[in-house]
Automatic annotation (TrEMBL):
Cross-referenced NCBIfam families: Phn-HD
Name by which UniProt lists this protein: Phosphohydrolase
InterPro entries given in the database record: HD/PDEase_dom, HD_domain, OP_Dioxygenase, Phosphonate_degrad-assoc
Domain of life from the UniProt record: Bacteria
Domain HD: 32-99
Organism: Jeongeupia chitinilytica
Length: 188
């Protein structure tokens, strides 16, 4: 299901209030915190947008905590890419597509990364393929979008603070519109 702007905004405004995958914050709070981290670090509009929308696939797939407990991976990164591909180009889509792989990669190459993951993120890691082996890690590192995906992953990990104040959704949607494909940005 490809999203248009209205559907994307409605999804974020009206369906992202549920708790985010076993974390103590809502999906919307996680999205806003991720985007705020990207903006704080001086990321370009496309990467701020990727940070905002990296988990949109959970909302599209309507994944709940029961799915994870039942051992179901909704492949939210793939669902998200399919939903966003008419609105955004690769500079937004590729980091979203790779943010799960980036978690698997960081677990393989960065000592202490796995232990620092939240309990919910560790639980989903097993469903997402587990820690990469050496060959997978080498392949991931060679991807031209690997750096952006790793940056997104780090913001994703950081964006789980209950009660944190962020700029409003409208602020980040304006940035997302600036990062949209020219034809998608013109179509309201």
């Amino acid at each position: 299901m490809a999203l248009d702007w209205l559907a994307l905004e409605n999804l974020l405004r009206h369906q992202a209030g549920a708790l985010y995958g076993g974390e103590a914050i809502s999906q919307l709070a996680h999205a806003l915190q991720s985007a705020e981290c990207a903006e704080r670090d001086g990321a370009p509009a496309a990467l701020i947008t990727a940070a905002l929308l990296h988990d949109i696939g959970h909302l599209v797939a309507e994944q709940g905590d029961d799915d994870i407990a039942d051992g179901i991976d909704d492949r939210h990164e793939q669902v998200g890419v399919a939903a966003l591909k008419t609105l955004f180009a690769d500079d937004v889509i590729a980091p979203i597509a790779l943010h799960v792989a980036a978690k698997r990669y960081l677990c393989a190459v960065e000592p202490g990364y796995l232990a620092a993951l939240s309990a919910a993120s560790r639980a989903s890691l097993a469903l997402q393929g587990g820690v990469m082996d050496g060959l997978e890690a080498d392949r991931f590192a060679a991807n031209p979008h690997a750096r952006a995906a790793v940056a997104l992953r780090r913001w994703d990990d950081e964006a789980k603070v209950a009660g944190k104040t962020t700029p409003p959704l409208a602020h980040f949607l304006a940035i997302a519109r600036s990062a949209a494909r020219a034809t998608a940005g013109a179509a309201q």
